[in-house]
Amino acid sequence: MLPAKGAYKLGEAKVAREREVGTLWIGGPLSWMEQLCLKSFVDRGQKITLFGYEPIPNLPAGVIFRDGREIIDTDDFIKYEQKNSYALFADWFRLHMIHQCPGMIWVDTDVYCHRPMEYDSDYVMGYELPGEHRVNNAVLGLPADSDILQQMLEFTSDRYAIAPFLPRKRQEQMRKQAAKGKPVHVSQQPWGVWGPMMVTHYVHALGLEAHVQPLNAFYPITFRERFKFMRRAELATGLITPETTALHLWASNKRQLGNIHDGLPPKDSYLEKLVQDHNINPALAPIKGRGKATFDGALIDELDLESVSVAADLTGGARSFMLALHHKFDCEIQLVNCNRRGKFKEGDQGWLQSYTEFLMDHDVDPGRIRVIRDENDLRPVDVLCNLAGFGDRYNVPFLGKFLDRCMHSDTRVFMDVRKGSGAFPFLKKFGVNTALSSREEDGHEITRIRVQPKPPEPTSTEDGWHEIARQLAGREGWYRPGANGHSFLYMPRASDTLVVTFDNLDIAMTKREDRRPWGYSFIKDHGWSMLGVLAGGWTWYREPWVHEQFDALRDEGFFKQFRRVVFYGASMGGYAACAFSAAAPGCDVVAISPQSTVDKSVVPWETRYKVVWDRDFTGRYGDAAKVSVAANRVSIIYDPYEPLDANHAARFTHDNVQHLRAPLLGHRLGSSLNQMGILSPIILGALNGTLTSEEYYGLLRARRGSPRYQRELFKRAVAKGHDRLAKALGTHILSTNPNRAVRIGLEALTEEAG
């Protein structure tokens, strides 16, 4: 194996210098390509720092994050306007990073670590084309005090400079414009004027060719050959040589990945091999756009819902978005089999089969895919997609019945609107819309929008609930409406057991056909009394009126009339069940994935639920982990591998706490338990006081047959290097069901062993 230039040869006494790399990201969450490249450095043991100007929610573990203002303190992110690319700012930033961080090597976020860069020289750069002339800057290291760096910093200090390396004709045009008082800003100049063009010029002008690595070091697959990364893996593998260290994957491939491959690595491609090697799930972070083009996967960043139970696609145009929703929320996917006039007729639409195959090929359980073939089967959904459909290619009035049947108070509709289609006036009665992106197709302006229902009139939902609640309470019970949509509903039955549940009024009224609080039928069937506490939105019940009601119930001895009182809730409701249990000392609490508090001064690591960050979490019902000490038993059911949920669970430290772990089932583990058929017996056991740890973990054995659990367990075995265990586990899983993710992972392990 040949050593790279500047590295020490094997056998020499001096060890190659350990290098740190740095890069920059502007533009919100990372796609799987950036995650892959960043994680590859971590996995290869090379220290990597990502600079950014805002928090990045899906940064791979092990990557160091630093504020970009440490290097350039600015909010002026200049870009190549013709391509709508921040590559121009990155060209400028990398020079200052190298200058201020001596020894740090710059890498673009589409550079993959094939093997660590252990170059001794501070000059780290490479030719990108045969002929050894053009130098790319996707990988760039320079001495902090070098002439080349100083000259490039000086050149880029003038945003109207006329580069001596541009074609003479272009230089002459720019001089004429400058003479007229209209100099050409760098953002309007050719692509790469502060990038490869500039670096190439100064390398040759200063005679630094001896410091440039050969083509194979970083660019063995050239720009013209970049599509080989998306074809059979062996095509790319055959071009990578022993000289290759950091491998440029060419983010230009994003356009084809988005247009043809749903923003995901093509099957059996080199890119798919890499994401499998580094345990990246592309479905959670699909390619979202390139330049001015945006793909449907980008919609995952435009969704403002905390949870999604059901998502539906009307026209078959949102495959990667639906896949991302499923992997993020474990939601059901509905595919609506209607034609361009909104009619349900015999025979499936042409897109249904390939769509279904696509979902199953990307680890969606067939049981979570439902094809709607009858108008009577339409139900409210959380997300409805209508891309390239009604309002763009088809007449928008045919959309009406789907909006009537499928929208509830929190539904989000994503659709394309062609200018002049009449869609915007049509949509006014259904809600308000937000423009997300625009494009031009066949001479028509197309706007992609998000529609959400108008906020209800202050009393409309409550009025409907008032009547329902009074009927449910009957003569023996009572109903207490309160401030900002909060209410208490008491339904007496036996005096033996009272179950106190916490729910969201909007969900009860708009997402459930029976318009009942959570668990109503379940609790009624067991003859238990029920106190339903409903919130007027995502408030975490931090409303003084709610606190006053619990004080009053406590003081009047309401809870003491029952032999047993159980507080139950999940997530927000789980927090409330624990917090308000203080009003009924000696009660039992059952909480699924609860928060202990959302007070940022107490749990600064809690990055979710911004909607409630400004609420007051102090007082007698504030910190659930502390005030729940008065309960008899607090059963916390949570996934220990969900870091934030595990952190909250760890704050419950009193002797009355029973921690019940549900590994690898996620925050919304209730839906996973329900799919396994064990949610009801677990809740029943918890509510009637018979659920022991032994019984719980006995029921939880059912997860062994869950494809999601099997996939996560297999991936963790691989990630920890337990290859023998992973092979045995994978073989067992495939003997019980055709788990695609496990099959691919097992094949990769077998190839490595061979």
Description:
By secondary structure, this protein is an alpha/beta fold. The chain folds into four domains: 21-160 and 187-251; 295-452, Vaccinia Virus protein VP39 (Rossmann fold); 460-670, Rossmann fold, CATH 3.40.50; 706-753, no CATH class. 32% of the residues lie in helices and 17% in strands. The chain contains 26 helices and 26 strands. It has an eight-stranded mixed β-sheet, sandwiched between helices. The chain has a seven-stranded mixed β-sheet with strand order 3-2-1-4-7-6-8, with helices on both faces. A seven-stranded mixed β-sheet has the order 14-13-12-15-16-18-17. A hairpin with a 2-residue loop joins strand 10 (289-290) and strand 11 (293-294). Helix 24 (707-719) packs antiparallel against helix 25 (723-736), helix 24 packs parallel to helix 26 and helix 25 (723-736) packs antiparallel against helix 26. The longest helix is centred in the first third of the chain and has 14 residues, at 87-100.
Write the layout of secondary structure elements.
Blueprint: E1 21-25, H1 32-43, E2 48-52, E3 64-67, H2 87-100, E4 105-107, E5 111-113, E6 124-127, E7 135-141, H3 147-156, H4 168-179, H5 196-205, E8 212-213, H6 215-218, H7 233-237, E9 246-248, H8 253-260, H9 270-277, E10 289-290, E11 293-294, E12 310-313, H10 319-329, E13 332-336, H11 351-361, E14 369-372, E15 383-386, H12 400-406, E16 412-418, H13 423-427, E17 432-441, E18 444-452, H14 460-473, E19 478-481, E20 487-491, E21 497-504, H15 505-510, H16 520-525, E22 529-535, H17 544-555, E23 564-570, H18 572-580, E24 588-592, H19 624-627, E25 633-638, H20 643-650, E26 657-661, H21 669-675, H22 679-688, H23 693-700, H24 707-719, H25 723-736, H26 740-753
Parallel strand pairs: 1-2, 1-4, 2-3, 6-8, 12-13, 12-15, 13-14, 15-16, 21-22, 21-23, 23-24, 24-25, 25-26
Antiparallel strand pairs: 4-7, 5-9, 6-7, 10-11, 16-18, 17-18, 19-20, 20-22
